[in-house]
Design brief:
By secondary structure, the chain is an alpha+beta fold. The protein has one helix at 5-41, and strands at 45-47, 52-56, 60-63, 68-78, 92-101, 104-113, 119-123, 126-133, 148-154.
């Protein structure tokens, strides 16, 4: 039994529509992947020695003239004594950063004792002065995306 020419055209038209929808879906997926990659790098900063800068988790800072990039990888733990609470131990906030210096990547944990404004860590010939924000408050949870690391790199 042969198909009527009109029915064949209609079948081809529907097949072309399905193919067009498929191409559209693939295009949207590619665009979403591209945009996601751009968003991760959004907010990266370039600063000089001695300049104060703030980065969030996943963001990086390039130190001009030093062949150095500091990336805030994650907050490993935050046991700092919350504001307006009396604690036996002040706690500590630990942040993991990756430092790429002259082509070599280093993993470093920055520990800031609770109840301090900032702390220091030495790296090669540099001093990193840093503080993790926000500071904990009793009864309030801090999500990983809310954390910001404020740093100054000096020699």
């Amino acid at each position: 039994m042969r198909e009527h020419p009109y029915e064949l055209c209609k079948m081809r038209e529907e097949a072309n529509k399905k193919k067009s929808r498929w191409y559209l879906v693939v295009l949207v997926i590619i665009l979403l992947i591209s945009v996601t990659g751009c968003v991760r790098n959004q907010g990266d900063v370039t600063v000089g020695l001695g300049e104060v800068f703030t980065i969030g988790v996943g963001q990086s800072a390039r130190i001009t003239g030093e062949d150095m990039v500091i990336t805030f990888e994650e907050v490993i733990g935050d046991s700092r004594c919350p504001q307006n609470v009396v604690c036996v131990w002040e706690g500590v906030a630990s942040s993991h950063v990756r430092i790429t210096h002259q082509g070599t990547s280093y993993s470093l944990v920055l520990n800031q004792p609770g109840l301090t404004e900032q702390a220091q860590e030495h790296f090669i010939n540099y001093t990193l002065t840093f503080s993790l924000h926000p500071y904990p408050r009793a009864g309030e949870e801090i999500s990983p995306g809310e954390y910001r690391l404020t740093l100054t790199v000096t020699k």
